[in-house]
Design brief:
heterodimer, A: alpha+beta, Uridine Diphospho-n-acetylenolpyruvylglucosamine Reductase, domain 2, Uridine Diphospho-n-acetylenolpyruvylglucosamine Reductase, domain 3, Enolase-like, domain 1, five-stranded antiparallel β-sheet, 29% helix, B: Ubiquitin-like (UB roll), DNA polymerase, domain 1, 5 strands, disordered N terminus, binds flavin-adenine dinucleotide, binds FE2/S2 (inorganic) cluster
Chain lengths: 331, 228
């Protein structure tokens, strides 16, 4: 094996406050890039597909790290907190276990040791045509290479295709949706809070972005309200390999069960459309019902209504159906 | 590590250096790969900044945008202070292998997908191919070369790898060992399952996984067989 090449050069900035980082990113505009653990970014750089001139390393901003319990019984997680910290956090494990479980399924131990929750939620699409650097719709062109008769689209979407058929690759995003998390976004005009469900956007809204973040904005924290603390949770990820591979489908669920009756529930699936898919139909099917095999089966069937498979991803339909069934049954 | 005080003020940097006009032109800073390699050959392990200084006169440097990294770093590697000139876009694997001569850290995929480059940063297993060297200044960096004792005695994990016939081709072995050492420091008595998870970010093309796990259990003072 030959030696490896360097990634193309850039200037590196290591601010230690959020204000400084926002200021730098504001000045650099299109030429700037926010860097956290780099596990998504370096691929882009090494492949020379994205070539920012100025990279702003956020990992020195201590204020954006760590998990804090809030007065209302929820938690606030700094965007620069690593996935390993989340996976191991006692408070997350005991009260919001679905997130700890989701974080523990990302990539590999080493990637979780440096990969941040912010980077995991803000990561770009993993469609390999796009990652390869072809001029597809998402890259500003006018073709989708995955959605052609020969296109290899086994990993692609069941819903929400709009020129682009890429999916949300994140394992933690569905858990955030299920927990009704709120994303704290900071930018030149101050701070705003966006519900997790609205934070992610599909190609019909903006085909070149995966989130509502505008250039120059940063995700600073994730606030998880106490509403689902201590609920029954379920997370399962199906991937080709247990390590490194992105989800083919993942499912996150939270349920309040009283006696055997499901009083309320949240379901969200990843890797089936460009955003985590909140399964409101499933929630309606199970709400107020006693848990049973029949209910689980019905919930599974309802989850896949309206799914529109591509040439090679039909398997995702029974996969999602089974995952929802298990979640209802085993949470 | 002594930091240049010019680098930081309360906000992390002094304001006047913000001027966009002051940003040095990247085009003039390009070093070709050939120059890069020549630089290394010319100056041995630690490359002097002059060997491939990126067309950046001291005048330009003075007005470089504030907060931009200083290239001369002091890294703490295997308990030693190493002075080294590090490019902003340089991965730790590049610095270790090509600047510090620590070639025990392997580069397999250079994409975070194999684990051959695993080193310990403050005892935490980390892919050196997916970490910028500038991100780990002020941290403790440990490579396979740092494991043996002062008289060359092998680390218990290294010895156990030999005793259990761990490696086949050996390419993935330094990474596997670093993951195992990281595990045992955090959890000296792991179960075999915990060891399996801890080594799961290290591919072995030869499929020597079971041997590696046997070695980890042996190093932890546990019989490989009884811990199935
Ligand atoms: C081999 C491999 C396997 C992987 N497998 C999985 C997997 O199974 N599941 C999964 O979910 N992910 C996976 N990933 C994707 C991802 O790299 C990691 O999940 C990681 O969490 C990304 O975090 P980071 O801090 O390293 O990201 P970075 O690369 O630093 O950032 C990713 C993106 O988010 C932006 N960003 C980062 N932080 C912020 C912030 N605070 N505000 C605004 N923008 C920000 C960056 O600009 C960049 O565009 C994998 C990656 C690799 C290389
Ligand atoms: S070389 Fe770093 S993970 Fe493969
Ligand atoms: S021993 Fe050959 S790759 Fe692991």
């Amino acid at each position: 094996m030959g030696t490896r090449d360097m990634m193309p050069s850039f200037e590196l900035y290591q601010p230690d406050t959020l204000e400084a980082a926002l200021d730098l990113l504001g000045r650099f505009g299109e030429d700037g890039w926010a860097l956290a653990g780099g596990n998504d970014s370096f691929d882009w750089f090494k492949d020379r597909v994205k070539r920012p001139r100025y990279v702003v390393d956020l990992t020195g901003i201590e204020a954006l790290k760590g998990i804090r319990e809030t007065a209302d019984g929820g938690v606030e997680i700094g965007a620069l907190t690593t996935l390993t910290e989340i996976e191991r956090s006692d408070v997350i494990r005991s009260r919001f276990g679905v997130l700890a479980e989701a974080a523990s399924k990302v990539a590999s131990p080493q990637i979780r040791n440096t990969g941040t929750i912010g980077g995991n939620l803000c990561q770009d699409a993993r469609c390999w045509y796009y990652r390869y650097g072809v001029h597809c719709y998402r890259a500003g062109g006018n073709t989708c290479y995955a959605d052609t008769p020969e296109g290899q689209n086994r990993e692609h979407c069941l819903w929400g295709a709009d020129r682009c058929v890429a999916v949300s690759p994140s394992d933690t995003a569905p858990a955030m949706v299920v927990l009704d998390a709120r994303m704290v976004v900071a930018g030149p005009n101050g701070e705003r809070e966006v519900p997790a469900e609205q934070f992610f956007i599909g190609p019909s809204i903006d085909i070149t972005r995966m989130t509502v973040l505008e250039p120059g904005e940063l995700l600073t924290a994730i606030r998880i309200p106490p509403s689902w603390a201590g609920a029954r949770f379920y997370f399962e990820k199906v991937a080709d390999r247990n390590v490194w591979d992105f989800p083919l489908v993942n499912i996150a669920a939270a349920m309040r069960v009283n006696g055997n009756v499901i009083e309320d529930a949240r379901f969200a699936a990843g890797a089936v459309q460009c955003t985590p898919r909140r399964l409101t139909v499933v929630e309606e099917v199970v709400r107020g019902q006693p848990r049973s095999e029949d209910l689980a089966r019905l919930a599974g069937q309802s989850a896949v209504r309206g799914a529109t498979p591509l040439n090679y991803n039909h398997f995702k339909i029974p996969l999602l159906q089974n995952l929802v069934m298990r979640a209802v049954r085993d949470a | 590590m002594a930091e240049n005080p010019r680098d930081r003020d309360v906000l992390g940097y002094p304001e006047p250096r913000y001027e966009r006009s002051g940003l040095s032109d990247l085009a003039s800073r390009k070093a070709t790969r050939r120059q890069f390699i020549k630089g290394i050959i010319a100056s041995g392990a630690a490359v002097s900044s002059a060997a491939y200084l990126f067309g950046c006169s001291s005048g330009e440097r003075a007005v470089a945008p504030a907060g931009g990294v200083e290239r001369m770093l002091t890294l703490r590697v295997n308990g030693q202070e190493r002075h080294v000139d590090v490019l902003p876009n340089e991965t730790l694997a590049m610095t270790l292998r090509y600047k510090l001569g620590l070639t025990g850290t392997k580069l397999g995929c250079d994409r975070g997908e194999c684990g051959a480059c695993t080193v310990l940063i403050d005892d935490v297993p980390t892919y050196a191919c997916s970490t910028l060297t500038h991100q780990v200044r002020n941290r403790s960096i440990e490579t396979i070369e740092g494991l043996e004792g002062p008289n060359g005695e092998l680390h218990p994990v290294q010895q156990a790898m030999i005793d259990e016939l761990g490696p086949q081709c050996g390419f993935c072995t330094p990474g596997q060992i670093m993951s195992a050492v990281g595990l045992l420091r955090a959890n000296p008595r792991p179960t075999r399952e915990e060891a399996r998870l801890a080594l799961s970010g290290n591919l072995c093309r030869c499929g020597a996984y079971d041997h590696y796990l046997n070695a980890v259990m042996r190093a932890a003072g546990q019989s490989a067989v009884s811990q199935a």
